[in-house]
Amino acid sequence: MLKVSLKGALTGCLMLATAASLPLGQAMARDLTIQVWAGGSNVADAYRVDAITMAADILERESAIRGEELNITVETKYDFDGWGGFKQAVTLAAEANNAPHIVVTGHEDIAPWSQSGLIRPIEDYVDFDSWPLSDLFENLIEISSFEGVIYGVPQDAESRPFFGWIPHLKAIGYSDADIRDMPGKVQRGEYTLEDVLNDAKKIQDAGLVEAGYGWYPRVSKGGDYWQFYLSYGGEMLDSSSGKLVFDKAAMQKVYEFFAKAVEMGVTRKNHIGTPWDQWYSEVASGKAGLWHGGTWHYARYTGKEGLQDFFGSVMFSLIPAGDSNGNANTITHPLVYLVTNRGSDDDAAVAAQLIAIASEPRINTLHAIKSAHLGIAKSQQSVPLYANDRWASEATVRLLPYASAQPNHTGFSPYFDAMWKGLEASWTGQKSPAQAIADVESELKAQLGGDILIR
User: Fold this and answer.
1) Which of 340, 364, 393, 400 is an S-S bond match for 99, by CB 3.0 to 4.6 Å?
2) What are 20-73's pLDDT values in tens digits?
């Protein structure tokens, strides 16, 4: 655990309330400790917590200029035993009424933690119509909300692109101009998932990759797979009722797409469960033709995997549409800053103000570039460190404005479990796509009842 002691002053809203009771000229002083824990993080992600330390320094200096004194001690921790260790630590701390003041976690925790009372609506303490929060991407604010209430502030963003190995695309007939235009064709719906399978087959037939490597998807359960549901026009949440949605026709097309990939021989039947290290090595070295992954993979490809010329080797775009019912899309899984129920309202107000300062473009850019994530604010594209990073700037423009997310709904986890079981069963041939859909429907009715609309 890192502990940093800082000196400064209190936010104006807190100070004005206290100032009225003090004799003229008497300086106010307050000592405050703020704990911040971040999940899913390592050294590369340290700015998730270090930004709060930087924000505390700024807040103190601003307050000192107003003649106020505030001493903030920021205690940070991010070295948990994976996401499971982080969630367990937060749960145990909350049960002991000793949760950290600020947590950095996935947006999917907003629904259960707000309903349990663990977190407070951050909109009660900061103004989203004022800078820097007014500069945040609107879709990220929506993802940070639950039932119309803003609970969190996005800490970072990412997207899950479709990738293609450029030398293989050229070998099957694409020109440089074709490849440059491919992201636009995907966005316009002129290049679809059917084209993905056809090109994967051409790449294999040309002997450029081994059988089963033409279309090389993610190797484990992940939110990426909901993108294909959106590609066929599926909806995850009904905005009017707030209920989950299971579109049987759209989901069956997803199952059929992956079953067809296996049938065509461009994806292995036993692909799920491939070691991640093997997968990274293969996609970053041209052993796979087409694949999908995350924007954060760029750091792995160009770092550990040693890919020297990323932009000359890899095309990236939105996930293609499946048919005319759907659209090209991407899913983001932003981590969010949340204020817990720890301490007083005054403590929460300071914690929220620190989060707002940490969200300023230059501070957030430090995290985005160091960790190969995308920014959270529109103006970050004008910050030199961000603008001069080709991957961050191009991925932001090409992907982030079109990103949606898994819904903040307490029933989504069992929905995801059922969806994944059906996908695996149809992928491996244990069930036909139609039978898998029927079984998923039965399971969702039993598990979620009236919380899900089945269409």
Assistant:
1) 340
2) 334 444 456 899 999 999 999 999 999 999 999 999 999 999 999 999 999 999
How far apart CA 122 and CA 400 sit, in angstroms, is: 23
CA 169/CA 289 separation, integer angstroms: 8
285: tokens are: 């070295």
Which amino acid is present at 28? M
Q: Look at residue 271 and give its three-state secondary structure.
A: coil
* Burial bucket for residue 159 (CB in 10 Å: 0-12, 13-18, 19+): buried
Domains of the chain: 2-157+333-404 (3.40.190.10), 162-331+411-454 (3.40.190.10)
Question: What is the distance between the alpha carbons of residues 143 and 61, in angstroms, rounded to a whole number?
Answer: 32
What gap in Å lies between CA 448 and CA 409, rounded to an integer? 12
Q: What region, left, alpha or beta, does residue 27 occupy, with left being phi > 0 and alpha being psi -120 to 50 degrees?
A: beta
Bond from prior residue into 361 cis (ω within 30 degrees of 0): no
Nearest alpha carbon to residue 369 among 427, 314, 428, 298:
298
C-alpha–C-alpha distance, residues 241 and 447, integer Å: 19
The amino acid at residue 360 is E
Question: 248-264 and 412-427 are packed helices; what angle lies between their axes, rounded to 10 degrees?
Answer: 30
* Residue count of the chain: 455
